[in-house]
Specification:
The protein has 10 helices and 7 strands. It has a 7-stranded parallel β-sheet, sandwiched between helices. The protein is globular, with a radius of gyration of 18 Å. The model has no long low-confidence stretch (mean pLDDT about 95).
Length: about 290
């Protein structure tokens, strides 16, 4: 594929976007993934679990033996489909709609998860909001607040509520981004929150080491999810991912195994405060 070719058809959606409206549909159902009981009997909460990376993670966890609660904003059809995929693996699932940029809803999501699943062993903080700009001058205080309340405040609120219920030896996985590692001139507020997620991960790993609760981060490069046509759209969506050495965006199915690695004590018992960055062959100094 040459630099001038389009990776995807030109397209855009209203935020937050839906899977069915994407062309092509992302690979996000882990259809060819075979589990081996790595999470047998575990109870997981995945925020932003309706579609994209969250959906692929929810299904992978189910295939490894976990029950999965799914928190999301308003994408009801996507969320129900993800829950159906989890249940097809013989695991329990339920969905919770609402705005996780509101503290009370974060508390409620955790309470409902514990009540429905009987506990909470694995937390995946995964929701995100972005709105590309041409310069800092375009970012209003309202947008800055919305981005931070969604992308980092929710991680703080959900984690704080979850820790009252998580047993020693549990796992917390935060979704970061390549943009938190090296910045992005058109995603200034988003990149700032993703940098904050890295520091939050490092700090919580230190804070929880005595409880052997492992806190890690997956920081992907470009991934083909509904957020892309919903927040970029047009030619930006069409060329999405071509800046990587691999010259393409990842599919959610390619990212989810990183979350399985961090969730499964058998695979990552000696990992905490780590960042796993599936970024398509890009290398970063330092």
């Amino acid at each position: 594929m040459s630099d001038g070719d389009q990776a995807f058809p030109v397209q855009e959606q209203e935020y937050p976007g839906t899977t069915d409206a994407m062309t092509p549909r992302p690979a996000d159902e882990m259809a060819d993934y075979v589990g081996s009981g790595l999470l047998e009997g575990k109870r997981a909460l995945v925020t932003g679990g309706d579609s994209g990376i969250g959906r692929a993670v929810a299904v992978a966890f189910a295939k490894e033996g976990a029950d999965v609660a799914i928190a999301y904003l308003s994408e009801d059809d996507d969320a129900r489909h993800t829950a159906k995929l989890v249940e097809q693996e013989g695991r329990r699932s339920f969905v919770m709609a609402g705005d996780l940029s509101v503290e009370d809803h974060c508390d409620d999501v955790v309470r409902r998860t514990v009540a429905e699943l009987g506990g909470l062993d694995v937390l995946v903080n995964n929701i995100a909001y972005q709105s590309p700009v041409e310069s800092l001058a375009e970012i209003t205080t309202e947008q800055w607040d919305r981005t931070f309340r969604t992308n980092i405040y929710s991680y703080f609120w959900v984690t704080k509520a979850a820790l009252e219920h998580m047993p020693d030896g549990a796992a917390i996985i935060n979704s970061g981004s390549i943009n938190g590692l090296r910045g992005n001139k058109s995603l200034i507020d988003y990149s700032a929150t993703k940098g904050a997620i890295l520091a939050f991960t490092y700090s919580m790993a230190q804070s929880l080491v005595d409880r052997r609760i492992r806190v890690n981060c997956v920081a992907p490069g470009p991934v083909w999810t509904p957020m892309i046509p919903a927040t970029m759209g047009g030619e930006k969506a069409a060329k999405f991912g071509q800046q990587t050495p691999m010259n393409e965006a990842a599919q959610p199915d390619e990212i989810a195994p990183s979350y399985v690695f961090f969730a499964a004590e058998r695979l990552s018992s000696y990992y905490s405060g780590e960042v796993l960055a599936p970024i398509g062959g890009e290398t970063l100094p330092g």
